[in-house]
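Translate structure to sequence.
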């Protein structure tokens, strides 16, 4: 495993970090996966309060000496904060879930506009300072989905040690993009990358043209490897987090990151990525990563699955996904036709998708 400096903290972290949002349903398999990662050089684990069941499973995984093998990162549920005291209340709950006395890297979760206003209103930055003094957290950080201007405001408001941003081959200019990445490097702030495969959609739902582009390129690599290679090529990237769901996926990722070096992409390689991106843009889908923050819907609309089916149809022109929508989603009462346009889902969507409008679009296409 390759290790790099983690901003100005003095930590040495693995360039691959295990994301714990997409654990398999089987708890024993999830624990095996975490421990396999730590046994094979990974020393960075990322979870969050809102990842259902994740902190409890991660805590069980880190027993028997495994806690000493990792830098543990988790995130404060800003959505739930209504008073200053809530910050520490939830942190203490997380410490119990994770079965530890301290968090190595504690993030204020998803500091878009609304959450950032809440942090300022309830003095969340003072909370961070106090928790460092108490020894409950060691390093301060935030995750972010949103425009570059607000990102700079958040970054300049506190002496952060890390920022976690969304970046992948399709999002070079989306949200803060590579411009935000370089901004962090100038500040000496560690940059952790989330959604490197956009929730797996890049490698699971791609236009047929991409297969031809890859097969005709002299250097043979999988699309997964090209996605990761594009990221670890950039020296400004500290850790790339991938939320694997199976041990096989984890092993594939570890094999890729054992060869992770900066500045390995040639001009021709970068042009290849541009061609892949252009193929995706010609069949633009909905920017859903399947994180399920929008769920549960009060009307039981299965938002992530509907958008997944829509993107599959958009990318591949497959009629099977439309059939699945009608025979499974609609028939179970979870179709987009149940949406009442309440907008609750949009409160939590990190991609800022206008969900009700896109549900109507997806419903129309999938019925055809």
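Result:
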């Amino acid at each position: 495993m390759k290790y790099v400096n983690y901003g100005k903290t003095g930590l040495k972290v693995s360039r691959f970090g295990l994301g714990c949002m997409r654990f398999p349903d089987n708890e024993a398999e999830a624990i095996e996966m975490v421990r396999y990662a730590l046994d094979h050089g990974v020393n960075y684990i990322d979870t969050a309060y809102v990842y259902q069941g994740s902190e409890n499973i991660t805590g069980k995984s880190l027993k028997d000496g495994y806690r000493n093998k990792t830098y543990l990162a988790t995130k404060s549920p800003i959505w739930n904060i209504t008073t200053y005291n809530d910050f520490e209340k939830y942190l203490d709950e997380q410490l119990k879930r994770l079965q530890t006395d301290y968090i190595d890297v504690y993030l204020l979760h998803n500091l878009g506009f609304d959450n950032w206003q809440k942090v300022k209103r309830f003095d969340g930055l003072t909370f961070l300072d106090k928790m460092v003094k108490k020894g409950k957290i060691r390093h301060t950080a935030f995750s972010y989905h949103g425009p570059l201007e607000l990102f700079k405001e958040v970054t300049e408001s506190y002496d952060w040690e890390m920022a976690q941003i969304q970046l992948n081959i399709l999002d070079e200019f989306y949200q803060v993009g590579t411009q935000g990445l370089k901004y962090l490097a100038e500040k000496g702030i560690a940059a952790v990358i989330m959604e490197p495969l956009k929730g797996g959609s890049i490698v699971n739902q791609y236009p047929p043209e991409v297969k031809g582009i890859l097969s005709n390129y002299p250097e043979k690599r999988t699309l997964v490897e090209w996605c990761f290679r594009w990221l670890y090529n950039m020296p400004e990237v500290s850790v790339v987090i991938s939320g694997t769901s199976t041990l096989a996926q984890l092993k594939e990722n570890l094999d890729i990151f054992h060869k992770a070096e900066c500045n390995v992409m040639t001009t021709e390689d970068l042009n290849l990525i541009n061609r892949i991106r252009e193929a995706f843009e010609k069949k633009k889908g909905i920017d859903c990563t399947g994180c399920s923050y929008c769920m549960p819907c009060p009307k039981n609309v299965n938002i992530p699955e509907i958008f997944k089916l829509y993107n599959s149809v958009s990318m591949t022109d497959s009629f099977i996904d439309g059939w699945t929508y009608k025979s499974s989603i609609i028939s179970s009462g979870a179709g987009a036709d149940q949406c009442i346009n309440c907008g609750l889902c949009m409160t939590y969507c990190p991609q800022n998708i206008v969900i009700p409008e896109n549900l109507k679009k997806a419903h129309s296409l999938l019925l055809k």
